[in-house]
Amino acid sequence: MATSERKPLLLDFEKPLAELTNRIEQIRHLAEENGVDVSNEIRKLEARAMQLREEIFSSLSPSQRLQVARHPRRPSTLDYIQAISEEWMELHGDRYGFDDRALIGGVGRLGGQPVVMLGHQKGRDTKDNIARNFGMASPNGYRKALRLMKHANKFGMPILTFIDTPGALATLEADKGAGEAIAYNLREMFSLDVPIICTVIGEGGSGGALGIGVGDRLLMFEHAVYTVATPEACAAILWKDSAKAPQAAVALKIVSHDLKTLGIIDQILPEPVGGAHVDPLGAATTLKQFLLDNLEELKSLSAQELRLMRYEKFRKIGVFTEVTH
Predict the structure, then answer these.
(1) Residue 239 to residues 84, 167, 231, 233, 245, Cα–Cα distance (Å)
(2) Do 61 and 246 form a contact (C-beta atoms < 8 A)?
(3) Letter string b/e over residues 50-79, b meaning 16 or more CB atoms within 10 A of that residue's CB
(4) Orientation angle between helical segments 62-69 and 231-239, nearest 10 degrees
(5) pLDDT digits over 84-119, tens only?
(6) Mean pLDDT confidence for 131-157
(7) pLDDT confidence of residue 198
(8) pTM, entire model
(9) Between vectors from CA 66 to CA 65 and to CA 69, what angle results, nearest 5°?
(10) What span, in angstroms and rounded, lies between the C-alpha atoms of 207 and 167?
(11) How far is Cα 115 from Cα 73, in angstroms, rounded to an integer?
(12) Which InterPro entries would you find in this protein's record (predicted)?
C-alpha cells in the first residue's frame, strides 16, 4: 500500500488536536536546542493528545463522519486489495468494448483461497479522479462487475466487493441504461451460488453503491457512510438548501452504528483512532481478518442455503409495524 511523506490533510474538527501536536513538536525542538530534558512533560502531552484524539473521534456527528469517509487519503479499493491479497491480477473490460476505470476488479488469493475482488476506485489527485470519474461508475462499469461475478460463480470462487462511491455516474450519456445495469446486477447477484461479502470502505452512495452491494454479509468500516442519497442532495431536494446537509445527514441515518441498529449492515469494522487514513495497514489487517472469518462461516453453506439466506436478509430490510390507537 502506498504511503505519503506529506503532512496529513486537516479536517475542521481536528484543529484542536493539530494545535496540541504542534505545541509538542515546538517544545521538543526547543528542548533539543537548549539541551534540556523535558521527556516527562512530552509524554504527558502525548498522552493528552491521544486522549483528545479518542474523544474527538468517538463523538463525531454524521456530517463529520462523512468528512472522514471522503478523506482524500482514505485507503481505496486498490489499496486494500494490494494489502490483503497474496496474489492479484486485475481484469479489464465488459465484453461490450468498454473498460470503466471507476470500477475495478480481478482475481486473487486471500488466505490461500482464490477469490474475485472488485470495487469502486477513486483517484488520488485531480487528474486521477477525472480519469476514474471520482469513483462514479457508468453502466459499463456495472456490466464489467457482473462479468467478473459470473466468472467467480462459474469457477466456485467467493466474491468480495468494496463500496466507495458518491453514486453512479450522472452524465447524460451514462444515464442511458444506468438504472437498468444496476437493477440487472441486483437481480443476478441474488442468484449466484458462491459466498458474497460486501464491505463499505468509504462513501456508499445511492444506487451506485447498491450495484455491487447484494451479499450474504454486509460489512462497514466504523467511519464509513451508507446512504440512499448524499446529504447535500437530500437537503437540496427537501429544503432547496444544500447548506442543511448536516441536518439531512442526521435524518438519513448514514453512519455505521445507526445502520447496524436498523439491520442494514451485519458487522462494524473498527478503524484506527483518527480514521483509516491515519494507519492504512492497520485498517487493512482488520479488514482481512473480518473477511477471512466470514468466509470461513459461509463456505460451509450450500449454494441453495446461500441464496435463501441472501434473499431473506434483504426481505427483512425496511419491515415495520403499524401501531393503531
Answers:
(1) 43, 21, 11, 10, 10
(2) yes
(3) eebbeebbeebebbbbbbbbbbebbbbbbb
(4) 130
(5) 999 999 999 988 888 999 999 999 999 999 999 999
(6) 94
(7) 97
(8) 0.88
(9) 90
(10) 6
(11) 26
(12) Acetyl_CoA_COase_a_su, ClpP/crotonase-like_dom_sf, COA_CT_C
Beta-carbon count within 10 A of 39 CB: 10
> What pLDDT is stored for residue 5 in this prediction?
43
Under DSSP, is residue 204 helix (H, G, I), strand (E, B) or coil? strand
| CA pair distance 227, 269, nearest whole angstrom | 18
Instruction: Please tell me the least confidently modeled range out of 7-16, 62-71, 194-203.
Output: 7-16
Number of alpha helices (DSSP H) and beta strands (DSSP E) in the chain: 13, 8
3-state secondary structure of 225: strand
Question: Facing residues of 181 across strands?
Answer: none
Average pLDDT, the chain: 90
Identify whether the C-beta of residue 241 lies closer than 8 Å to the C-beta of residue 235: yes
Q: How far apart are alpha carbons 74 and 121 in whole angstroms? A: 11
- Return the CA Rg of the chain: 21
* DSSP letter (8 states) at residue 133: G
Q: Quick one: pLDDT at residue 122?
A: 93
Helices (H), 158-279: 178-191, 206-210, 231-239, 245-252, 256-261
